[in-house]
Design brief:
Elements (H helix, E strand, L loop, with lengths): L11 H7 L4 H7 L4 H19 L3 H9 L21 H10 L21 E4 L9 E4 L1 H18 L6 E4 L8 H12 L3 E3 L9 H11 L3 E5 H13 L12 E5 L5 H7 L4 E8 L3 E6 L6 E3 L4 E6 L13 E7 L11 E7 L1 E2 L11 E2 L4 E2 L4 E3 L2 E3 L1 H8 L5 E11 L5 E9 L8 H14 L4 E5 L5 H4 L10 E3 L4
Helix pairs in contact: 6-7, 8-9
Length: 466
């Protein structure tokens, strides 16, 4: 019985024309007006909505909010639609196991079902979530990553080593697809330290002339120490030109210095949406791929748009995912803020500061919201800060909630008794409230953050409800 294969299911050349990369990206969007961009977004949004109305998950979600198809006439009406988050997806999975009813595959005969790519999230914030991709959406997702790398300045014929995890996790696989299909780089899929031992990873870099590292900043920084332990000098024996990863707000200087002065580039995305925004060669914020995503920044408590320059939850609508698992007003629960002003490339796209913290990992202390992931950036002004830390939230016998920040420092703690006070005063100034500080030697937080096991180290240990 005939059924479609992957690359027969969509036109890859048309997709590249619609979501250009390389020189074609700037040729298409440099100088475009905001009005022209809005019209493009609106066309893609209406096509997306037509598909989403066919899917039980959205029929149920929007119906419960009293929304009917005729209520959404353009992108201007998007705020009429309720937002959703991972908890809604997981509820769908629980009610319609094993993959939920959000993909659009429900009720299709086997010979009618399009090819799919199946992965899960990492499970950092709970049970792993199933994610299903159609061929067109999957490839455009890869194109957007390649667009980011090439915009940053990825050189022709680079040799890239990836420390993203594989297995069921989506990240490592779609990074491989982006690089091998839409750049001419040679790709080494080393994966995490559990997949390829750290010592072996640094020897791979040396032996194959790796000049670009991609992955999560914490592990990439650790690899620099592993290289030195193995008698290899970063910058001399291993010459890294670029590090492209999820840098958060932790200090860039220490990571760049650890790899001999490598240039650092940040980008942002989640498993459900793919690459949403990426730093450009100007390194002044992350450009949102607004031809592919409609990004709203909403207040954590009210879900109303925040003022320009204020921090809010990133709520994303993927304008290109109109085949399998459309994503419309998905609350990432990741915090950022918009950067105002013009950009040197005359792109019509907004810029954001990148990942500032998670609202679902927020600790509310004495009326003030504290985002543990954002504390790393605050600690960066401490000269001896290694970049590793963890926050521990606890409740004392009186019911008072307290937060203690364990901070790794390179200098001997006993030799610098004033360092704890300095750190305490600095955090109080930046957070607006006093938190506890405990300085520890390098490696002192590893057991709590699970740095050796995870791509994304834990930054909050919440013991308030234990």
């Amino acid at each position: 019985m005939p059924y479609p294969s992957y690359f027969e299911s969509f036109d890859v050349h048309q997709a590249l024309a619609e979501y250009p990369l390389g020189e074609a990206f700037l040729e298409t969007y440099a100088g475009m007006t905001q009005e022209a961009l809005r019209e493009l977004q609106n066309q893609r949004f209406l096509k997306l909505m037509e598909r989403a109305w066919q899917i039980p998950f959205y029929q149920r979600l929007w119906g419960a909010a009293g929304v009917e198809p005729g209520d959404i006439q353009s992108l201007d009406d998007i705020e009429k639609l309720p937002i959703f988050s991972k908890s809604d997806i997981m509820q769908s999975v629980e009610q319609h196991p094993p993959i939920g009813d959000f993909s659009g595959l429900e009720g299709l005969a086997p010979e009618q079902r399009p090819p799919v790519v199946f992965h899960t999230t990492s499970g950092t914030t709970g049970r792993p979530q199933p994610i299903i991709f159609g061929p067109r959406g999957r490839e455009i997702q890869a194109m957007l990553v390649a667009r980011a790398y090439r915009f940053m300045g990825l050189k022709p014929a680079a040799t890239i080593q990836s420390t993203y995890g594989h297995g069921m996790i989506n990240g490592g696989h779609y990074i491989r697809e982006a690089i091998t299909r839409y750049t001419n780089a040679m790709f080494l899929s080393a994966g995490t330290g559990l997949e390829t031992r750290s010592a072996q990873q640094v020897h791979l870099m040396r032996d194959f002339g790796v000049n670009v590292l991609v992955g999560f900043a914490d592990y990439i920084k650790k690899l620099a120490s592993v290289a030195e332990e193995n008698g290899l000098v970063p910058g001399k024996d291993i010459k890294i030109d670029m590090i492209i990863g999820h840098l958060g707000q932790e200090t860039r200087a220490a990571l760049s210095e650890a790899w001999g002065g490598a240039a650092l580039y940040d980008w942002y995305g989640v498993a459900d949406t793919g690459c949403i925004a990426a730093e450009g060669p100007d390194q002044n914020g992350l450009y949102v791929w607004e031809d592919a995503h409609y990004l709203e920044l909403l207040d954590v408590d009210t879900n109303k748009p925040v003022a320009a320059g204020d921090a809010g939850n990133m709520v994303v609508t993927c304008l290109y995912k109109d085949d399998v698992y459309p994503v419309i007003r998905f609350n990432t629960c990741d915090i950022t803020e918009e950067i105002p002003g013009e950009n040197p490339f005359k792109l019509p796209f907004k810029r954001i500061r990148g990942f500032l913290g998670r609202s679902d990992n927020m600790v509310k202390l004495r009326g003030i919201n504290v985002y543990p992931h954002g504390i790393g950036g605050m600690l960066a002004e401490l000269a001896s800060f290694t970049g590793e830390y963890v926050c521990v939230a606890e409740r004392d016998d009186t019911g008072r909630e307290n937060l203690t920040v364990l901070v790794e420092v390179a200098a001997p703690v006993a030799d610098h008794p004033a360092m704890t006070e300095e750190c305490t005063v600095m955090l109080k100034r930046k957070l607006g409230l006093e938190v506890g500080v405990e300085l520890v030697q390098p490696g002192g937080t590893a057991q709590l953050t699970e740095l050796e096991k995870r791509q994304k180290p834990l930054r909050l240990i919440d013991r308030r409800f234990a």
